[in-house]
Design goal:
316 residues, six-stranded mixed sheet, alpha/beta, single chain
């Protein structure tokens, strides 16, 4: 049954990908807050932008397809997940991929994989691009090129009614916290933990789960004190569950820099300029704003796409 293309409760909604390795067929959309989860998505469509398409390598233009890696194998509602038919990839990141492919005059081929295998696929050029809530970091810039398209904020989530708040790294001392492996949230958490240990504070215990459902089961049962993840995903869960609250929010790139999410490709692949041009064309023609509004994440919009801007710094 088709549901309306809007969220009835959440004001900011986006479940962002963490490192998950589960079989992508094992988890389909659960509580999606009123968003359309059918295979018939009626996506925002665009016309080919000739200037952007001209920046593509000839072999990609001749092939006529854009092979997109999505690292949300176990399902991240509504970032990237399977429709009600349990086979059609849908979500915000999928819609952005369709926009970019359309502006470039290409047909998108969405290949859902695990977070870890997404980067393996980019390294081997199996995928032309990754659209999977990938944050720009200085370490990743050593291997990949980025064309930005969305802001990145991260937050701590805990059971409702507690007194614990996180305003700085010192506030995680002695706590048990879940985080996605290989994410920028993990790096920030590990760095904070190391600083606390050096300063004589109790170490935090870091936990990893394959699926978001496992994380929230651990949170509700008290096996963890909190979850550190993308802010929009946490806002979505808070709005739909009614059992948790946000206890601290930060930029995904650290205290002095706004984190950014980007289309990601193998370094020096010759593709990033085309992605930037396609994204800027979508911003200019209004289709980008329509997609973000469709998923109720307009607050994360950027004014323009940038290539390889400053990202989460390397501290070790």
């Amino acid at each position: 049954m088709k549901r309306p293309l809007y969220f009835a409760v959440a004001a900011t909604v986006l479940l962002a990908a963490t490192a998950c390795t589960a079989d992508p067929t094992t988890q389909v959309a659960a509580d999606t807050g009123g968003v359309n989860t059918s295979a018939d998505q009626k996506r925002v469509e665009v016309k080919k932008n000739d200037a952007a398409a001209a920046l593509l390598p000839a072999k990609i233009r001749e092939r006529g397809t854009l092979i997109v890696g999505g690292g949300y194998g176990s399902g991240s509602v509504p970032l990237g997940f399977y429709a009600d038919d349990n086979k059609t990839p849908i979500g915000l990141e999928v819609d952005i991929a369709y926009l970019v492919a359309g502006e470039l005059g290409l047909k998108p081929e969405i290949e859902v994989t695990s977070w870890e295998n997404l980067f393996v696929g980019l390294d081997s050029a199996k995928y032309d691009v990754g659209f999977s809530n990938i944050t720009v970091t200085e370490k990743r810039k050593q291997k990949y090129d980025f064309a930005t398209y969305r802001k990145d904020d991260i937050a701590f989530e805990a059971k409702k009614g507690g007194t614990w708040k996180v305003t700085s790294g010192k506030d995680i001392a002695g706590k048990t916290i879940a985080v996605g492996s290989g994410t920028n949230q993990e790096k920030i958490l590990v760095d904070w933990n190391e600083e606390n240990i050096k300063g004589g504070l109790p170490a935090a215990t870091i936990k990893y789960f394959q699926k978001n459902t496992d994380t929230y089961l651990a949170l509700s049962s008290g096996r963890i004190d909190g979850y550190f993840g993308p802010n929009p995903s946490i806002a979505y869960h808070i709005a739909t569950s009614g059992e948790t609250e946000s206890i601290g929010k930060f930029s995904g790139a650290g205290p002095t820099l706004q984190g950014l999410i980007a289309a990601t490709t193998k370094k020096d692949s010759g593709l990033v300029e085309a992605y930037q041009a396609a994204l800027n064309a979508a911003i200019a023609d209004g289709s980008y704003a329509k997609v973000l509004a469709r998923w109720n994440v307009a607050s994360e919009a950027v004014e323009k796409s940038e290539i390889n801007p400053p990202g989460l710094p390397i501290t070790n």
